[in-house]
Amino acid sequence: MTQDLGLKDFSVNRGRDPWDPVLMFKMVFLQFLYDLSDLDIKEQCTWNMLFKGFLGLSTEELPPDHSTRCRFRLNL
Question: What are the residue ranges spanned by the domains of the chain?
């Protein structure tokens, strides 16, 4: 699906598995849709169950941090 969206592979060989590019794109979409700051989108994706469901995160799973989201946006 990432090729369909024109998203490149953001994986690097540095430890943990990379975040799903579709999840990252959905976070960018929510941030612009609701006019949220970087800190606000992190809070919403951590505590708002509707956001978590849209992203496909479990209730215990934390969203990507600020630096990961910034790197993703720069690579779009």
Answer: 32-75
